[in-house]
Design a protein that fits this description.
The chain has 110 residues and is mainly β. It has a domain at 14-82: Thrombin, subunit H (Beta Barrel), CATH 2.40.10. 10% of the residues lie in helices and 45% in strands. It is built from 1 helix and 6 strands. The protein has one helix spanning 89-99, and strands at residues 14-24, 27-36, 40-45, 56-61, 65-75, 78-83. The two termini are 14 Å apart.
């Protein structure tokens, strides 16, 4: 098996199905958040986003608002984004889990 140098989150993740966009510089692509914790998200992008690990991005979603973060890994159309510790992300995600989140099960196993 290939080592992808993916740094895993320590916080508990919850599967979700939230649709939105990821913005990098002036480019926006449609995305779907696959799982989320108070420290970051794993998401799937519908078209390529040419941004390297360490790039600053924004996640725009109706249920979450705008979240700021840094790309930690990218593989096969999926991104791992760690939230900016200086942003409101922790409060926004906590609010999402309190008021909007509905537990979903993954449709396909990898």
């Amino acid at each position: 098996m290939q080592n992808l140098n993916i740094i895993t989150r320590k916080a508990d993740r919850k599967h979700c199905r939230v649709f939105g966009k990821v913005r990098y510089l002036t480019k926006e692509v449609d995305a779907r958040i696959l799982n989320m914790s108070i420290t970051g998200v794993a998401l799937e992008v519908r078209s390529p986003l040419y941004a390297a690990s360490g790039s600053r991005v924004q996640i725009l979603a109706d249920d979450l608002g705008t979240l700021h973060g840094v790309i930690r890994w990218s593989h096969n159309g999926r991104l791992g984004i760690q939230f900016d510790p200086n942003s409101n992300a922790r409060a926004q995600v906590a609010s999402y889990f309190r008021f909007f989140h509905k537990e979903v099960k993954p449709v396909l196993a990898r």
